[in-house]
Amino acid sequence: MSSAKSERDGSRFLYDSFDAAQARIEANERVAKLQFEALDHRLGRIESMIERLEKRLWLMVYGVVAVILVQGIQSLLEMGPR
User: Fold this and answer.
1) For residue 40, which of 32, 50, 52, 29 has the smallest C-alpha distance?
2) Each residue of 2-32: pLDDT tens digit?
3) Are 31 and 38 in contact (CB under 8 A)?
């Protein structure tokens, strides 16, 4: 006799439902793992997009400040002695 048979004394129909439930649980765990990996990947892409957007925003802010400073210096030079 095999050791698997001695561990499971009784009808195979008694254990088939448990085996099917265990297989379903394992399949659900694999699907959940894949979903979390996909979510992590998407969040990483979103993070990098936000960083690029932030760099562009700061570049725009520095550009606006530079334009304001240049206009201020131009107006001071025009008001200078003639």
Assistant:
1) 32
2) 445 555 565 665 566 777 888 899 999 999 9
3) no
Report the candidate in 8, 7, 35, 30 with the shortest Cα–Cα distance to residue 22. Answer: 30
Cβ neighbour number for residue 15 with a 10 Å cutoff: 13
Of 60, 79, 56, 57, nearest to 68 (Cα)?
A: 60
The b-or-e profile of 34-43 (16+ CB within 10 A means b, else e) is eeeeeeeeee
pTM (whole model) above 0.90: no
Give pLDDT tens digits for 54-73.
Answer: 999 999 999 999 999 999 99
Backbone torsions φ then ψ of 27, nearest 5 degrees: -65, -40
Residue 73 contacts residue 79 (beta carbons within 8 Å): no
pLDDT of residue 47: 98
